[in-house]
Amino acid sequence: MPAQAGEPAAGEWMSGGGGDPAGLEAVQKGSLRIDTTWTEAGGTSVKRFAAGLTALFVAGWASTASAQEEQGRSGPYIGAGGTYAIESIDSNALGDYDNSWGYDIKAGYRFNPYFALEAEWQHFVGFDGPGEPDLWMIGVNGKGFILPGPVQPYVLVGIGYTGSDTPQPTPPDNKSTEAWGARFGGGVDFYLSRNFVIYAEAGYVLPFGELDHLGAIPITLGIQWRFF
């Protein structure tokens, strides 16, 4: 069909002939500008997102490092707890015994994030059996911390003086025996705040000499306060 007057011939819209090529070119360039704007905006958003993640990671790392430095700081501390002592008594020498309750008191100084020295007193009040012997130990422990942070596992080795008061059915009423001894163990410190700590600990108390038949495996749960 012939084209009507004023109407572009077939193909002119595609070729631009008689169809306002300048307007079509402007539309095409505008589309290109719009596409470029979206691409640039998308790239900017990705860069901002990546920068935000990086900043968050750096802030988290710095916060963790600061907390670990705080928890591993040097300074004195005190602690106390309750103990359940599993008997390790030579039944061939003394007979059969049950386990004993007891208590634990300590005071120490942490020198750096990985090492502390402490004085410790433990007393197991009485093993139920012949003579109902108790057992106590006062000594010095070296503690090595394995990991920093709010949960800090550690190992300890100590040496000290042990004693046992064994009630007798006939006078004298008590037979007190004392000897050197060693302590081995490990535990975990749980930081609830900068200064307040809960500790769980297990070990072995090994008396020497006349008390080498009277050992114990103490399991302790206690609280600790860190000064400064």
| Helical fraction | 25-40%
Rg over CA atoms = 39 Å
Q: What share of residues are in beta strands?
A: over 45%
Biggest β-sheet, characterized? 8 strands, antiparallel, barrel
Q: How many helix segments? A: 3
Mass-distribution shape: elongated
Annotated CATH architecture of the largest domain: Beta Barrel
Low-confidence stretches: 10-18, 58-65, 168-172
Mean pLDDT: 80
- Distance from N terminus to C terminus (CA atoms, Å) equals 99 Å
The ordered H/E elements are: HHEHEEEEEEE
The count of β-strands is 8
Number of domains: 2
Q: Which terms would index this structure?
A:
26% helix, 8-stranded antiparallel β-barrel, Porin, alpha+beta, single chain, 2 domains, 228 residues
Question: Explain this structure to me?
Answer:
This protein is an alpha+beta fold. It has two domains: 13-71; 75-226, Beta Barrel (Porin). Helix content is 26%, strand content 48%. It has three helices and eight strands, in the order ααβαβββββββ. The protein has helices at 12-15, 21-71, 91-94, and strands at 75-89, 100-112, 115-124, 135-145, 151-167, 174-191, 196-207, 214-226. The chain has an eight-stranded antiparallel barrel with strand order 1-2-3-4-5-6-7-8. β6 (174-191) and β7 form a beta hairpin. The longest helix is centred in the N-terminal third of the chain and has 51 residues, at 21-71.
List the helices and strands and how they pair.
Blueprint: H1 12-15, H2 21-71, E1 75-89, H3 91-94, E2 100-112, E3 115-124, E4 135-145, E5 151-167, E6 174-191, E7 196-207, E8 214-226
Antiparallel strand pairs: 1-2, 1-8, 2-3, 3-4, 4-5, 5-6, 6-7, 7-8
